[in-house]
Amino acid sequence: MSKPLILVSNDDGISSRGIRVLVELMKEIGEVIVVAPDSPQSGMGHAITVGNTLRLDKTDIFGDVPAYKCSGTPADCVKLAKHHVLTSSKPDLVVSGINHGGNTSISVLYSGTMSAAIEGAIEDLPAVGFSLCDYASEADFSHTGEYVKKIASEVLYKGLPKGVALNVNIPPKRNENIKGIKVCRQARAKWEEQFDVRRDPTGRKYFWMAGNFVNFDRGEDNDEWAIANNYISIVPCQYDLTAHHGISFLNDQWEL
Amino acid sequence: MSKPLILVSNDDGISSRGIRVLVELMKEIGEVIVVAPDSPQSGMGHAITVGNTLRLDKTDIFGDVPAYKCSGTPADCVKLAKHHVLTSSKPDLVVSGINHGGNTSISVLYSGTMSAAIEGAIEDLPAVGFSLCDYASEADFSHTGEYVKKIASEVLYKGLPKGVALNVNIPPKRNENIKGIKVCRQARAKWEEQFDVRRDPTGRKYFWMAGNFVNFDRGEDNDEWAIANNYISIVPCQYDLTAHHGISFLNDQWEL
Hints:
With 256 residues, chain A is of the alpha/beta class. Chain A has helices spanning 17-27, 74-85, 107-110, 112-122, 145-158, 223-228, 244-253, and strands at 5-9, 31-37, 56-59, 67-70, 93-100, 127-132, 164-170, 180-183, 189-199, 205-215, 231-238. Helix content of chain A is 27%, strand content 29%. Chain A is globular, with a radius of gyration of 19 Å. At the A-B interface, helix 2, helix 3, helix 4, strand 7 and strand 8 of A face helix 2, helix 3, helix 4, strand 7 and strand 8 of B.
């Protein structure tokens, strides 16, 4: 039986440490091809490049693993991979990451890591985004390997429901071992932004976004709870945004 | 009773025709303030500006309507409006658009117009994104006014469920009058991308994204059907992406 074909992308850019870790792990379970942004794309959400050109260049950054760097967003990378790079074969799995920093709860919306995975799901490909809840550039990835391989293998061999991509978050390396894997819902939480107001050298104002994460969710079945309690969280995500309870609300309450 | 405070944003940029139409309409029902991107942001999805600075400058482009142009994305505009511009008052309504081009079905994911509205919902503000299904720069907006005002007024006076923003699409101006408003679900459809491969003046390859829209949905309760049949579509959208059916799938089928 031939090895599964695994497409790897990310949003921190092709030269980040997290994608190097992910490529090494995926080589153990499949044949790997990389199409990833040539520069960091954090916070890009599900952006795509319309009204502008895209570059795609081969790179030997991963040795004998075929790899391409792209000037676009993570979603662009998956689109280009499918329609330009992998024209004669379809990947068996799309993985994105490992992100430097968590993508739990509301962060899934802003996450370039997850946009690559969701783009996979739109293309009917099994897809997973992996994030390590540690923003440090020297973050320790050593505890992620066994879980990343296990989850990727489960997706390869058991599949996913149509239109679903997985958002996997991994707790930072702590003294205690990881307790296991929890399938979760997205926590109700948000960022309370603050903007630092500063002056540039000419005296003109500019802003830096800052903020605090606020968790409103007291449940124990959500991704924030899992990470806080040293479990890996898996949230199955869909790209159908329809709020079905909103349909009945509007039909009942409004006069249209 | 004081007039409701209405925050207007968009993704085509502050100088586009669609936002001018929306500002004029909102002035009829409330007090208006504009915070919008200083340049086109189409396809930005739910991108935010992290790791980079933001500019925000007052402009008199709308006469006596207070207005600010922002160097960031539509989501940045709503965040800056809430946390920096409107620090002493909370908008009663956030509206985004009117977009030059449709944001039905899967396009909601890539839509900067809807990201401004969803950002409103995250901030617990009633919010609506309006899009006209006509990409032409000279598109006729004359049939949109009565419906845009009606929907904005319904949201102001009847409210929306928590965490829900509305995705409103308006058919292009046709010979026949609009038949009415339909509350819909997001259609199952996608873009089949193609990439035009070209050469720059130095001979280096570059790509333009192109593609065809493919609708897999045969239902009559979705937004594509509504637009094709000359109805305005309203899809209530949520930012909780959890695929709850995926949770039971993983718990039943996987060995974790």
